[in-house]
Amino acid sequence: NAGVTQTPKFRVLKTGQSMTLLCAQDMNHEYMYWYRQDPGMGLRLIHYSVGEGTTAKGEVPDGYNVSRLKKQNFLLGLESAAPSQTSVYFCASSYPPRRGNSPLHFGNGTRLTVT
Amino acid sequence: DAKTTQPTSMDCAEGRAANLPCNHSTISGNEYVYWYRQIHSQGPQYIIHGLKNNETNEMASLIITEDRKSSTLILPHATLRDTAVYYCIARGGNKLVFGAGTILRVKS
Which listed site, A2, A69, B57, B92, has its alpha carbon 20 to 30 Å from A16? Predict the structure, then answer.
């Protein structure tokens, strides 16, 4: 099993450009999450999904859109990138919390720089 | 999910036990306590979780007080590779919000 795979690993964008970050998981998890982490800070939740076709806002959703067309994939889109979106983006997946045994599994991150 | 409070940083001597405390005084009955760690800039790594009973796995032990208002993560024999940020989270709902965590520095 590959676990949680994020692509790309690195990306440099110019202000105003758009891009999509892809997260794929092969653990049949219902829940998926997108976090960002700025230098020296903790993780902040951007958006999450509790199942195929559903998404919800997290702590810092502005400037991002997401889609969950397939259970195994969760896409994070930046329509018009800004320097403030320079960050490391982490994707995670899990079973529903009601199952109890539902730790999050994280990918290795996408390092995005917006100039 | 209940808010958790952790010390900002801790030091531990290599080979000694590292005891990381977490306060979750407003935890509800269906919320599990999860511990993760993040080494440098890697993705967070799951360590252990529990509801009421103490738990142990190959990485660590988790001690939860009887009233469930606090817990302690124990790394029995800390090594330099255990230097990381450790996050304690109370999870019951759909969101999983991370706090600032505890920076554990293991020193030789």
Answer: A69
